[in-house]
Amino acid sequence: MKLPARAAALRGDDYQHAIGWQWVCEALDDPDVESVSIEDREGGAFDDIVVRRRTQPNVYWQVKSSNYGDTMVTEDWLLTKKTESGSSPLQHFHDTWRTLRDAGEPLELALVANRGFDGGHPILGAARSLYDGKLRTDEIRTAGSRSNLGKARDRWTKHLEVDPDDLLAFLGDLRLLPEGNESSVDRASQAVMRNVGLRADPDAVVIGKTMVREWVKQGLGRHSRDELRRQVAEKGLLARSGTLVFAVHAIDRTPDRVQPTVELDIVDLYEGEEPFARRKLREPRDWNDRVLPLLREKVRELEAYGPRRVHATGSMRLPMLFAVGRALPDVRGWVLSWDQHGEEWVTAAPATVAPRVFSDRQLGGGADLAVAVALTSDPTVSIETWAASNGSAIGRLLVLGPDGAPSHTAVPGGDWSAGWARAARETVRQTVASSSARRVHMFVAAPAGTALMLGHYWNMMPTTVLYEYIPSENTYVETMSLA
């Protein structure tokens, strides 16, 4: 049965929008992508999908759909004009290539089709790589004029009214890509959706394609990665509804049941071949020179999505958890959550808790303040040993803990942890004010979720230096300095 013309056109639009959505997902996964546009005004005959990149060539795709399996892309189709005064598809493609090339931008053109390419044609078949869709221009160039390949080259040269070098330069920038049917494109999109922390169910794919269709209906132009992040969040496509997932792979790369929206990986910066040994960076200055800038960059990516709820995950030590919380602060409207031994701790509803001051005394003759968080254990003796052997600038030592003795059960839950962290900040703030300390040295012995929350509430403080404990040496090493 032959479909009505309008039905065929709608199927063609659906196919274009499916591939457009696939590129949206790819853009969320590829930091080199600058923007994605559909029906791009500057795309000429390759306007269906345009992907602009920062360092790699820009991508211009023309998508052709067929409803019947016996329809192919042939030389006749490429070289036939629809009207006597019009241009053939090949002429349109070449004109667009020349315009874009003359503008000086690196580019990659692709004719993308769910129909086959004529395998018996010397250029469309034998000279086309099945690996990447590129044409073997060296073979086309050296083919003899009496060979089938040489004859096809000469016909195309004559049809375009160009010299052979111009034709070969054009073909060198052109890829011929059979993409399969719409459902196969959807499956490819789903794989990328999982990888970028989006829902990957069939309804989510439909929502994504509808989003692309709306761009076309409204005549919208380029969409940056930040705009794409915001749109997928607004459409309810995040894997955790309304919540971004931020994975920080610090001492190990551990899979999570929900694919992260944004990931930070610094495992290779550490000394040590396995997670338990990773406490120091190979280059200590990388804490401030590399880790903190990378963390700020990832937070900017999170901000672009719009929602202010973030579920943090990953294998981190306490200073890194504090730094992550500090980078996503309460004062900027972030709400954080963390899985603490199977229980989700959230900063949304802190309990009314007051930290107990275990100790507040002079440790040395310096002007700085040392703060020890003593929830799971009391680090006071280790801090004293470290300070005595390092000639630190610490003067006063403030040790804060729970109501009872420090232990692994001293923190009863997430709300208590959030309340304790917020109240501890106030206690430290008052101590800073009374001592005129210009720097705080932070030593944390607490559950992971509490370290995250303490950083989250850490505001209006002097520069804070975070320390990592080295059990084998009973000492501390400096990590990050948070201004």
Automatic annotation (TrEMBL):
Domain of life: Bacteria
Name of one Pfam family that matches: SAVED
InterPro entries: SAVED (IPR040836)
Domain SMODS-associated and fused to various effectors, chain residue ranges per copy: 293-481
Annotated NCBIfam families: SAVED
Protein name in the entry: SMODS-associated and fused to various effectors domain-containing protein
Organism from which the protein derives: Kribbella caucasensis
